[in-house]
Amino acid sequence: MTTWFISRHPGAKVWAAEQGLHIDQHLTHLDTTLVQRGDTVIGTLPVHLAAAVCSQGARFFNLSLDLPAHWRGRELSADELRQCHARLEAFHVSPSPLPELTTAP
Questions:
Q1: Residue 87 CB contacts under 8 Å (≥ 6 apart), including other chains
Q2: Which of 5, 33, 73, 90 could form a Cys-Cys staple with 23, CB 3.0–4.6 A?
Protein backbone atom coordinates (compact mmCIF):
# COMPACT_ATOMS: atom_id res chain seq x y z
CA MET A 1 0.00 0.00 0.00
CA THR A 2 1.29 3.40 -1.02
CA THR A 3 0.84 6.76 0.69
CA TRP A 4 0.72 9.53 -1.88
CA PHE A 5 1.23 13.21 -1.02
CA ILE A 6 -0.10 15.46 -3.76
CA SER A 7 0.94 19.11 -3.70
CA ARG A 8 2.88 21.51 -5.88
CA HIS A 9 3.64 23.70 -2.87
CA PRO A 10 7.05 23.41 -1.16
CA GLY A 11 5.62 24.69 2.15
CA ALA A 12 3.06 21.87 2.21
CA LYS A 13 5.79 19.29 1.67
CA VAL A 14 7.80 20.76 4.56
CA TRP A 15 4.65 20.82 6.74
CA ALA A 16 3.97 17.15 5.99
CA ALA A 17 7.54 16.22 6.94
CA GLU A 18 7.24 18.18 10.18
CA GLN A 19 4.08 16.23 11.02
CA GLY A 20 6.02 12.98 10.73
CA LEU A 21 3.80 11.71 7.92
CA HIS A 22 5.05 8.61 6.16
CA ILE A 23 5.01 9.48 2.45
CA ASP A 24 5.96 6.94 -0.21
CA GLN A 25 5.36 9.12 -3.26
CA HIS A 26 5.24 12.90 -3.62
CA LEU A 27 3.66 14.21 -6.83
CA THR A 28 2.61 17.65 -7.96
CA HIS A 29 -0.28 16.17 -9.96
CA LEU A 30 -2.14 12.91 -9.35
CA ASP A 31 -2.72 10.38 -12.09
CA THR A 32 -5.57 8.45 -10.47
CA THR A 33 -4.78 5.35 -12.54
CA LEU A 34 -1.71 4.88 -10.31
CA VAL A 35 -3.81 4.61 -7.14
CA GLN A 36 -4.58 1.11 -5.87
CA ARG A 37 -7.10 -0.28 -3.39
CA GLY A 38 -5.78 0.29 0.13
CA ASP A 39 -3.60 3.27 -0.82
CA THR A 40 -3.78 6.60 1.00
CA VAL A 41 -3.88 9.89 -0.88
CA ILE A 42 -3.13 13.11 1.00
CA GLY A 43 -3.49 16.58 -0.48
CA THR A 44 -5.95 19.09 -1.83
CA LEU A 45 -7.64 17.57 -4.86
CA PRO A 46 -10.42 18.67 -7.17
CA VAL A 47 -13.58 16.89 -6.08
CA HIS A 48 -13.74 14.65 -9.18
CA LEU A 49 -10.22 13.35 -8.50
CA ALA A 50 -11.03 12.78 -4.83
CA ALA A 51 -14.09 10.79 -5.94
CA ALA A 52 -11.94 8.71 -8.31
CA VAL A 53 -9.50 7.96 -5.46
CA CYS A 54 -12.34 6.84 -3.19
CA SER A 55 -14.03 4.76 -5.91
CA GLN A 56 -10.79 2.80 -6.31
CA GLY A 57 -10.85 1.76 -2.66
CA ALA A 58 -8.21 4.20 -1.48
CA ARG A 59 -8.46 6.59 1.45
CA PHE A 60 -8.45 10.35 0.89
CA PHE A 61 -7.20 12.87 3.43
CA ASN A 62 -7.68 16.51 2.49
CA LEU A 63 -5.06 19.04 3.57
CA SER A 64 -7.51 21.58 4.95
CA LEU A 65 -6.69 25.20 5.81
CA ASP A 66 -8.54 28.17 7.24
CA LEU A 67 -7.00 30.51 4.69
CA PRO A 68 -7.54 34.27 4.94
CA ALA A 69 -8.72 35.79 1.67
CA HIS A 70 -5.66 38.05 1.41
CA TRP A 71 -3.35 34.98 1.44
CA ARG A 72 -5.01 33.31 -1.55
CA GLY A 73 -2.91 32.84 -4.67
CA ARG A 74 0.51 32.94 -3.04
CA GLU A 75 2.95 30.35 -1.76
CA LEU A 76 2.68 29.61 1.95
CA SER A 77 5.50 28.49 4.19
CA ALA A 78 5.09 25.63 6.64
CA ASP A 79 4.80 28.22 9.40
CA GLU A 80 2.01 30.03 7.54
CA LEU A 81 0.24 26.69 7.03
CA ARG A 82 0.33 26.18 10.81
CA GLN A 83 -1.10 29.70 11.27
CA CYS A 84 -3.96 28.62 8.97
CA HIS A 85 -4.60 25.58 11.21
CA ALA A 86 -3.41 23.11 8.58
CA ARG A 87 -4.83 19.68 9.28
CA LEU A 88 -5.71 16.43 7.59
CA GLU A 89 -9.39 15.59 7.32
CA ALA A 90 -10.64 12.24 6.06
CA PHE A 91 -13.30 12.37 3.34
CA HIS A 92 -15.13 9.79 1.32
CA VAL A 93 -16.26 11.43 -1.91
CA SER A 94 -18.64 9.86 -4.39
CA PRO A 95 -20.65 11.27 -7.27
CA SER A 96 -24.42 11.32 -7.10
CA PRO A 97 -27.02 11.72 -9.83
CA LEU A 98 -27.38 15.29 -10.96
CA PRO A 99 -30.75 16.72 -9.96
CA GLU A 100 -32.65 18.58 -12.60
CA LEU A 101 -31.40 22.14 -12.69
CA THR A 102 -33.88 24.90 -13.30
CA THR A 103 -33.21 28.47 -14.21
CA ALA A 104 -34.91 31.39 -12.59
CA PRO A 105 -37.51 33.14 -14.77
A1: 63, 64
A2: 5
Strand (E) or helix (H) holding 61: strand 59-64
| Per-residue pLDDT tens over the stretch 23-56 | 999 999 999 999 999 999 999 999 999 999 999 9
Angle 23-25-31 (CA atoms, 0-180°, nearest 5)?
135
Query: How far apart (Å, rounded) are the C-alpha atoms in residues 26 and 105?
Result: 49
Measured between alpha carbons, how far is 50 from 56 in angstroms, rounded to an integer?
10
Closest to 62 measured CA to CA, from 38, 37, 93:
93
- In Å, what is the CA distance from 59 to each residue of 46, 51, 90, 101, 105? 15, 10, 8, 31, 43
Structural contact between residues 3 and 22, judged by C-beta atoms closer than 8 angstroms? yes
The neighbour count for residue 97, using CB atoms within 10 Å, is: 5
